[in-house]
Structure prediction request, 355 residues.
Amino acid sequence: MASKDDGFARVHLQFLDMFIASGFKSLRKMEELRGTSEGGLVGLGEKAKLLLGAAVAETSLLSALYWITCAYTLLGHVIEPEMRQQILDFAGRCRCRSTPGAFAPHPAHQADLLNTVSAVQVAVLLDKPGILGDLSEVSHYVRSLQLPDGSFANRSGSNEGDCRFTFAALCALKLLARLENNDRKESLDSVSAWLLRCQNLDGGFGCRPGECESHAGHTFCCLAALSLISQLHQLSHRGRGRLIRWLSGRQCESGGMNGRPGKKADACYTWWTLAAAELLAGSEIVSMFDLEALEEFVEHCMSAEGGVAPHPHDDPDPFHTFFGLAGLSLVEHAREGRRGLKKMEPTLVLPAQFS
Prediction:
């Protein structure tokens, strides 16, 4: 691979530094305002309006820390000690005391599975499993969300399974087993059967069996989940052929990928579609897609100040920055690119060095 493009990394690191610094500043401001009156933000007028975006962002804060931390790693950046400690401290505060092993997106919110797996991924990325507390409690919490049909729910008390939650659960259990240094084999035959029933006649996968439209994100989750339990081979020959055709059809005239037919391209689907295709076809992705055109599309989604937006000329955000760079990593390692991005490991959505 050619030498690392330092300018490329630098501009995206500047965006990430700015975003996370301003994010922690807004978080502190929100916490100050919560204590100003019994009604919280009620009656604060313009101040409340200015901070509405920060309040809404609380529902995905822990996941945002995972996206940013992983993006730093992809770019080969070592996080400064002060920022690293802020990330670890916040993740630790998100541990739910009333539900052992569970994590919330913010200390004031309800715990769920997706944020719990984000906490596990942050712990792995920063090599600090201590923020998770008792690892066996985390594993127990994740297993407690499995439903009778084999799928997983996102929260305790929910009876709705979803392939996103099922993948998240299997990813968390895989990482926790490594942190605990055990080789426990999960008995997940019912999971495999449920995931395979999510495939539709067009070849793509929906979020659950039945009348759920095929979607690139759901397709990735199903394939990655099957891979984590070594059941990807259970996909039928016909089902595999249909899926390859469906995935190949996700590339638009713009060069970018869409999530489903009829939708415009979005930078995040560079990851969801390519990662799914790599799990299914390996190096064949070079012949399945025009990777040069895809790379150009992601470049058009990049801001001159750093960060990746969903579409050209939109504002960048950490979600699309991470998944845009993660998808670009797959392109780069398939085409011997010049940017020096670390290789991503699809099944764990982490750089390959952690696989």
Confidence is low (pLDDT under 50) at residues 37-42, 49-53.
